[in-house]
Amino acid sequence: MEAGVSKLSVEDREFWKAISIKPAKWKELQYGAEGNGFWVVAIKDSNVIWYNDIEEGFNISTFTQYGEIAKYYTEQDELQWSIRKIKKAP
């Protein structure tokens, strides 16, 4: 994560500080059972940034229940890309 954060602008780094959380395992019902979920690293409104260790990249998903990722994605993004995407999310 440090590598992705180091590639952020000062403005994006401040945004990251505001939304980042201590990484926590969240459930994901489609593919998350094998590894007991995926690591969520940031929350903005009803969206989370999480690390997909199957695809080896970061993703953005919604959630309706805290602790459970609503949908599986395979973006394989670098962290800084996901931070910039979630910043623009409604």
Helical stretch count? 3
How many domains make up the coordinates? 1
The Rg value, from CA coordinates, equals 12 Å
Strand order of the main beta sheet, please? Answer: 1-2-3-4
Q: What portion of the residues fall into strands of 2 or more residues?
A: 25-35%
Low-confidence stretches: none
Instruction: State the share of residues found in helices, binned by percent.
Output: 25-40%
Give the biggest beta sheet: 4 strands, antiparallel
Based on Cα principal axes, name the global outline.
Answer: globular
How are helices and strands ordered from N to C? HHEEEEH
Which structural category do the helix and sheet elements fall into?
alpha+beta
Q: What is the count of β-strands?
A: 4
Beginning-to-end CA distance, first to last residue: 24 Å
- What is the overall pLDDT average? 93
Summarize the structure in words.
By secondary structure, this protein is α+β, with helices and mostly antiparallel strands. The protein has one domain. The protein is built from three helices and four strands, in the order H-H-E-E-E-E-H. The protein has helices at 2-6, 10-19, 79-88, and strands at 20-26, 38-44, 47-52, 57-62. The chain has a four-stranded antiparallel sheet with strand order 1-2-3-4. A hairpin with a 4-residue loop joins strand 3 (47-52) and strand 4 (57-62). It is globular. The two termini are 24 Å apart.
Give a short summary of the structure.
The chain is an alpha+beta fold and 90 residues long. It has three helices and four strands; from the N terminus they run H-H-E-E-E-E-H.
